[in-house]
Specification:
With 76 residues, this protein is mainly alpha-helical. The chain has one domain (18-75). 63% of the residues lie in helices and 11% in strands. It contains three helices and two strands. It has helices at residues 2-14, 28-44, 51-68; strands at 19-22, 72-75. The chain has a two-stranded antiparallel sheet. The chain is flat.
């Protein structure tokens, strides 16, 4: 039980720092367009399952798409 609590606490604390997508030369309009495209592709590409596992799989697809667009994920 202590291990589960420790993992939960670590995840909660890591969520405090804002995470942003960064791409050299891209403005907000570029980000909005490319982010929308990745989200649309993730939603249309298939069923990921229900619950937490499905949400994590879809988020991973979205993240790979954004990296393919030239973005990097960094903490602000």
């Amino acid at each position: 039980m202590k291990t589960l609590f420790s993992v939960f606490l670590l995840l909660a604390m890591s969520g405090c720092a804002p995470i942003i997508w960064d791409k050299s030369g891209a403005d907000q309009a570029d980000f909005n367009r490319e982010s929308y495209s990745c989200e649309k592709d993730a939603r249309q590409s298939g069923h990921y399952g229900d619950g937490l596992a499905g949400a994590v799989s879809m988020q991973q697809f979205y993240n790979r798409c954004m990296v393919a667009q030239g973005y990097t994920l960094r903490r602000n």
